[in-house]
TrEMBL record, chain A:
The chain crosses the membrane at residues 290-310, 380-402, 422-443, 455-478, 599-622, 672-689. It comes from Mustela putorius furo (European domestic ferret). GO terms for biological process: intracellular zinc ion homeostasis; protein stabilization. It is found in: Membrane. Belongs to the TMC family. This is Transmembrane channel-like protein. GO terms for molecular function: mechanosensitive monoatomic ion channel activity. Residues 489-595 form the TMC domain. It is a multi-pass membrane protein. Residues 1-31, 45-81, 216-251 are annotated as: Disordered. The keyword Transferase does not apply. Keywords: Membrane, Transmembrane, Transmembrane helix. One of its GO terms (cellular component) is Golgi apparatus. The keyword Transmembrane helix applies.
Automatic annotation (TrEMBL), chain B:
PANTHER family: CALCIUM AND INTEGRIN BINDING FAMILY MEMBER 2 (PTHR45791), CALCIUM AND INTEGRIN-BINDING PROTEIN 1 (PTHR45791:SF3). InterPro entries: CIBP (IPR051433), EF-hand-dom_pair (IPR011992), EF_Hand_1_Ca_BS (IPR018247), EF_hand_dom (IPR002048). It is found in: Apical cell membrane; Cell membrane, Sarcolemma; Cell projection, Filopodium tip; Cell projection, Growth cone. This is Calcium and integrin-binding protein 1. GO terms for cellular component: apical plasma membrane; centrosome; filopodium tip; growth cone; lamellipodium; nucleus; perikaryon; perinuclear region of cytoplasm. It comes from Mustela putorius furo.
Length: 748, 220
């Protein structure tokens, strides 16, 4: 808008014009407080019988009034804005957008157009009277707002008729208008006049920012599957009924058919005649070892895709580009739960919110308050000491497990002493149970400022501990047990060990729930006479779930029924924990940033847990020699060789499947395509990072620009105040002058 | 339950279902509860759609009694010129916005209007301090101190007032609510998760299905 700087607004202020002027307070929804203030001022003006003067647009000097007037009763309060200023302020688009019917209709008109025509914004050239006030010359005196709103309403109704019934109803449901108005919009327009009589017409501005864009409601979060799916696979060997898992269960795939299939890999056609051998040239025999590997591989691949997808969605939702934390605003705006209807619960909620707000304020104070160098040094020293102690505990426990496992190797277990096999899992589970409590005690020494950081540190330490223990166990199985169990089935043994660990973990979780929560509550209520129930430790419980899932992933190759056991275990744990939670625990005092924590947990599930299991299985498949007395891989050097042998067989099978060996030789065995693909992916990731950085910078610039516009707005409002203040003062002065002249006519 | 005279017509019911987020059962239940507020001689269907119920009667509903925002809620949804009475359609609007299936957009829109105590289209400092006082409790001893209140409002304005004019308008409100990660998942300013203001079939029972504070805290 190219207006000269010293423009003067042409705002007629005669009292009679109140009814005809297009003011926002004609619309009953809007600006009640302004309405009152304006009424008071107008009443005062009318009582005094002052005639407000008119100013020509562009004129510099005020003109003299004509009529006589009484002296205005008292000095005007310098700070109180005048009627006209209030009127202008009340009609600012940013204040009317949520309230004025016209603004809402205009906003939803644009959304409907976007929905119908799939354009990002309606063409401004086409719309004669644009909705944006800055584009049509915002003319207060000539603003026929009534006509504008009716036009917009008709346009909206026409657009709505163009949508399907479902879309139209969806759009109408989401509009913040009353039911009666929505009914009007749904009806078919028969003419302007008819529409006016049916619906509530009237004043109100057609202004307001037409916000485009239908915000998409986020879809359901994809939960990673608990256990990888399995197609029809070979029978599980080690999932025995007993706790020790050792029994008369057959060795992994020890039946005849796989053996004959196996032997068919090395010797052509050992099968009885009439079988598939005769049709060898046309069909390929069922290769059981490869099918087994493929099943596990595909299951892991699907799990990996699901996990990565879920993690990236969580990341996308939690860490949006340019989003501020806004924790105070969100707490104040979103924390009241209107579900409560009891007065006592309502008071409890008030107490919780008050405590939370005070904690937030205190935390912000502490963060802003500068700490002395000595205090910081002390804090760092304490932190270092606690970390040292925790890591020391971890290393100590790892060495203990290693030593115990070596002891178990040295003292072989006879067939009737199978209970002794439970010793190692029991030791591991006991350590897993005790370490979190120890870490919690050590963390109490630290006295962290921020509770979120405390939680993250606790998660880190517990995770490092659990992964270290699992790591040493994996080394024990693949590194040592394979060597010592030369003539027996080491795969069986590993599968059974993992099964024992799973079941014992379940038992210890139940014991922990019993003692940690129930007994603690009873003790604290009866003996210590405290009414405080123990807090439910969310982080600890989630880490236990992650640990259990890691065990399942580790064992799925050797004990295919382990996922079924895991499902049953999870169902039982869920119900036990739920009962215990309701009966024994209180909610954590510190409210959870639910989405950030979910992101962290899904990332933990993906990175150390799933990746570790995948690495373990890759090593087992690629590098370790399968046992020679059992299993479908018994004739091979590594499990992976099953694929190679099959490819060689395919090559001999004929030209019809020659593309498979080609793919295998040039894309899988050859390292160059893999390097190329990795390099491309890295380049794509780098480009995306740069794009995100650029977006962040743009958001910062836009925020600065918006705050500059805000300054402009404040400047203009102050100018308005001062302009009208000057006008009032000069009017008051002139009326005083006139008064004096009237009273003392012979002063001339 | 109820005579045939107090049933809404099928067309009207279908229309209400199309235009609000409520199901048929909820609309019928709402109609029944609304009629119970009317004097016995005015309980026919036609009258129930025309007549308006005063604010005091709506505020006496058990679902709203303990809500510190009850008056603002009723005023926002009232379409009468003096904003002190609700018709049946206003009542349906109220229940629709507070239901499970309402979009976050419309919820944040109405939440803004409820929080705007002086109805000037923005949340200024007085609005915010009034809001915080409602949240922390009505007693004198439960309120925040003056310095805490000032600091809290300063922090809120710093986080959400993008154009630095000292007030939060609707766009800024919706921006801060929707950009915050917790909102995008489950929370919204009007009722997380389960349906608030779900009317009970029997007035003597309380609406809130669980009085367990743990369950309420874990409603995520």
């Amino acid at each position: 808008m190219a207006q000269p700087l010293n423009f003067v607004l042409h705002v007629p202020e005669t009292p009679e014009d109140h009814g005809q002027e297009p003011s926002p307070y004609d619309e009953s929804d809007v600006h009640d407080s302004f309405h009152q203030l304006i009424q008071e001022q107008s009443r005062w003006v009318a009582e005094e019988g002052l005639e407000l003067q008119e100013r020509e647009r562009g004129a510099g000097a005020p003109q003299t009034t004509g009529s006589g007037s009484r002296i205005p009763p008292g000095p005007e309060d310098a700070g109180a804005p005048s009627t006209a200023t209030l009127r202008i302020l009340a009609s600012m688009p940013s204040r009317t957008i949520g309230r004025s019917r016209g603004a809402i209709i205009s906003q939803y008109y644009n959304r409907t157009v976007q929905l119908r025509r799939r354009v990002s914004r309606p063409e401004l050239r086409g719309v004669g009277r644009s909705a944006r006030p800055s584009l049509r010359l915002y003319d207060l005196e000539l603003d026929p707002a009534a006509l504008e709103e009716e036009e917009k309403r008709l346009l909206l109704v026409k657009e709505l008729q163009g949508l399907t019934v479902a879309q139209r109803d969806h759009m109408l449901r989401g509009m913040p208008l009353g039911l009666a108005e929505k009914r009007c919009l749904r009806s078919v327009p028969v003419g302007l006049g008819r529409l006016q009589t049916h619906c509530r017409g009237g004043g109100g501005l057609g202004g307001g920012y037409p916000l485009g864009g239908v915000r998409s409601i986020p879809g359901p979060t994809l939960m990673p599957p608990v256990s990888p799916e399995r197609r029809a696979g070979p029978q599980g060997g080690s999932g025995g009924a007993g706790l020790a898992g050792v029994g008369s269960s057959p060795a992994v795939a020890g039946s005849e058919t796989p053996a004959s299939c196996n032997s068919s890999l090395t010797r052509p056609c050992a099968l009885p005649p009439g079988g598939p051998c005769g049709r060898e040239a046309e069909s390929l025999p069922y290769n059981m070892p490869l099918a087994y590997l493929f099943t596990v591989g595909v299951a892991f691949f699907i799990t990996c895709i699901t996990l990565v997808y879920s993690m990236s969605r969580s990341f996308g939702e939690s860490y949006r580009v340019g989003s501020a934390s806004g924790v105070h605003a969100v707490t104040v705006f979103c924390s009241w739960d209107h579900k409560v209807t009891q007065r006592r619960a309502s008071r409890l909620q008030c107490d919780n919110i008050r405590t939370h707000l005070k904690e937030l304020l205190a935390e912000r104070q502490r963060r802003q308050g500068p700490r002395s160098a000595c205090g910081r040094l002390r804090h760092v020293a304490v932190l270092g000491l606690v970390w040292l102690l925790c890591l020391g505990t971890t290393v100590g426990c790892t060495m203990a497990v290693y030593a115990f496992s070596e002891l178990m190797i040295k003292s072989p277990v006879s067939a009737d002493q199978e209970g002794a096999l439970l010793a190692l899992p029991v030791v591991v589970c006991l350590l897993n149970l005790g370490a979190p409590y120890l870490f919690r005690c050590l963390a109490a020494l630290e006295r962290q400022d921020s509770p979120v950081l405390e939680v993250y540190l606790a998660i880190c330490r517990n995770l490092i501990f659990k992964m270290a223990i699992l790591g040493i166990l994996c080394y024990h199985w693949l590194g040592r047990r394979v060597g010592t169990l030369k003539d027996q089935c080491w795969e069986n043994f590993v599968g059974q060990e993992l099964y024992r660990l799973t079941v014992l973990d379940f038992i210890f979780v139940l014991l922990d729930t019993l003692f940690g929560e129930l007994v603690w509550r009873l003790i604290s209520e009866k003996k210590l006479k405290r009414r405080e129930k123990p807090e439910f430790d969310i982080a600890g419980n989630v880490l236990e779930l992650i640990y259990g899932q890691t065990l399942t992933w580790l064992g799925v190759l050797f004990c295919p029924l382990l996922p079924a056991v895991q499902i049953i275990k999870l169902l039982l744990i869920f119900y036990v924990k739920k009962t215990s939670l309701m009966a024994n625990c209180q909610a954590p005092r510190r409210p959870w940033l639910a989405s950030h924590m979910s992101t962290v947990f899904v990332s933990l599930l993906c990175f150390p847990s799933f990746l570790g299991a995948a690495v373990f299985l890759c090593y087992a498949v690629w590098q370790v020699k399968p046992s020679s007395t059992c299993g479908p891989f018994r004739t091979l050097d590594t499990m992976y060789e099953a694929g190679k042998v099959w490819v060689r067989r395919l090559e001999a099978a004929g030209p019809r499947v020659s593309w498979l060996p080609w793919v295998h030789r040039y894309l899988v065995e050859n390292t160059f395509p893999i390097y190329l693909v990795s390099a491309l992916l890295l380049a794509v990731i780098y480009l995306n990072i740069q794009v995100v950085k650029g977006q962040r910078r743009v958001i910062c610039l836009l925020k600065e620009q918006i705050s500059n516009e805000g300054e402009d707005k404040v400047f203009l409002i102050n100018r308005l105040h001062s302009v009208y203040e000057r006008k009032e003062r000069s009017r008051a002065g002139r009326s005083q002058e006139t008064e004096r002249l009237v009273d003392h006519p012979d002063a001339w | 339950m109820g005579s045939s005279g107090s049933r809404l017509s099928k067309e009207l019911l279908a229309e209400y279902q199309d235009l609000t987020f409520l199901t048929k059962q909820e609309i019928l239940l709402a109609h029944r509860r609304f009629c119970e507020l009317l004097p016995p001689e005015h309980r026919s269907v036609e009258e129930s759609l025309q007549i308006r119920v005063s604010l005091e009667q709506i505020l006496s509903l058990p679902e709203l009694k303990a809500n510190p925002f009850k008056e603002r809620i009723c005023r926002v949804f009232s379409t009468s010129p003096t904003r002190d009475s609700l018709s049946f359609e206003d009542f349906l609007d109220l229940l629709s916005v507070f239901s499970d299936t309402a979009t976050p957009d419309i919820k944040s829109h109405y939440a803004f209007r409820i929080f705007d105590f002086d109805d000037d289209g923005t949340l200024n400092r007085e609005d915010l301090s009034h809001l915080v006082n409602c949240l922390t409790g009505q007693g004198e001893d439960t309120r925040l101190s003056a310095s805490e209140m000032k600091q809290l409002i300063d922090n809120i304005l710093e986080e959400s007032d993008i154009d630095r004019d000292g007030t939060i308008n609707l766009s800024e409100f919706q921006h801060v609510i929707s950009r915050s990660p917790d909102f995008a998942r489950k929370h919204d300013p009007l009722f997380s998760c389960s349906a608030p203001l779900r009317l009970s079939c029997d007035r003597s029972h309380s609406v809130c299905p669980s009085k367990h504070p743990v369950r309420e805290a874990f409603h995520c």
